[in-house]
Every structure is written in structure tokens, then in C-alpha cells.
Design brief:
- By secondary structure, the chain is mainly α.
- It is extended.
- Helix 4 packs across helix 5 and helix 5 runs parallel beside helix 7.
- The relative contact order is 0.10.
- It contains 7 helices and 4 strands.
- It starts with a strand and ends with a helix.
Length: 149
């Protein structure tokens, strides 16, 4: 299945597209990359210039992620690893939101989520003990990350 990249017409994306096309000969020298490109293929699609509303779906997801990061992380100073863990947990949460029913059967309560398109199944994780009632000065760094997410 070919890889499709969708982005707006930002100069960074246009420059990346130009650089990738320019360096394609060097990329083809790598046997692993050559196999991947020849088997799967890659295409980059740009939305029309001056039409940011065309990227509304992914811009809404980015807006939601930014909102929850600001709201939950707040004034916490996180290390790179803690931030990456929190960011990944937020992405999993946003990609688990239902977007519609999975079937037309009224007795089937399963829903379709963006995670189904990413990994072919819902994104799930095992429940963890709540640390909501523990004072923050008593929490370990891992428990702070758990509490934030």
C-alpha cells in the first residue's frame, strides 16, 4: 500500500518535498529504502494554496491536542521522556474517540475510532491505580505523568 502524505502548502513542507525529490537518487542507493519505495511507493498531496479549511480534519486534531496539553500539563516542568510519554498518551486518547458506529446492527455498541485506521484495532491500555487523591508533593515523577494524562 503506498504511503500518502497530506499537508498544507507551508514553505517547510514544500521545501521538504523539493529536498526529497532532489535527494531521491541518494535514497535509492540504500537497499532497504529502495525496497520500501519500490514496493509501497510514496506520494505527497498538498491542499490548494490559501485554503486552510481543506486541512480542517487534521487541524482540529492538532487543536485538541494543544488544548489538552496546555490544560493538563500546565505549569509542570517535564523532562523530554516524561513529555514524550504524556504526548503519546494524549495521542492514544484522541485516537480512541469514537467517530461513528462500526456496524448498522443496533445491538452492536462498538464504535469506529481513528485508531482503527492506524493499527486496525482500537487503542487500549490496561487500567492503572488512581493517584488523584494523593497530594502532589508525595508523588513520584511517574505518578505525576500518570496524573497529568
Amino acid at each position: 500500500m503506498p504511503v500518502h502524505l497530506y499537508s498544507d502548502n507551508g514553505t517547510t513542507f514544500l521545501g521538504a518535498d523539493r529536498d526529497l525529490r532532489h535527494n531521491l537518487t541518494q535514497l535509492r542507493r540504500d537497499p532497504d529504502m529502495l525496497n520500501s519505495l519500490s514496493i509501497e511507493g510514496t506520494s505527497w498531496h498538498f491542499i490548494p494554496p490559501a485554503a486552510p479549511h481543506f486541512g480542517g480534519l487534521w487541524k482540529a486534531s492538532v487543536k485538541s491536542l494543544k488544548h489538552y496539553l496546555r490544560r493538563c500539563v500546565g505549569a509542570h516542568n517535564l523532562t523530554f521522556e516524561e513529555f514524550t510519554t504524556t504526548f503519546t498518551r494524549f495521542k492514544a486518547c484522541l485516537n480512541s474517540r469514537p467517530i461513528g458506529p462500526q456496524s448498522d446492527n443496533p445491538n452492536d455498541f462498538s464504535s469506529l475510532a481513528p485508531g482503527h485506521f492506524l493499527i486496525g484495532a482500537p487503542l487500549t491500555s490496561s487500567p492503572e491505580p488512581s493517584v488523584e487523591l494523593v497530594p502532589e508533593n508525595r508523588l513520584t515523577r511517574w505518578q505525576i505523568v500518570q496524573r497529568i494524562s
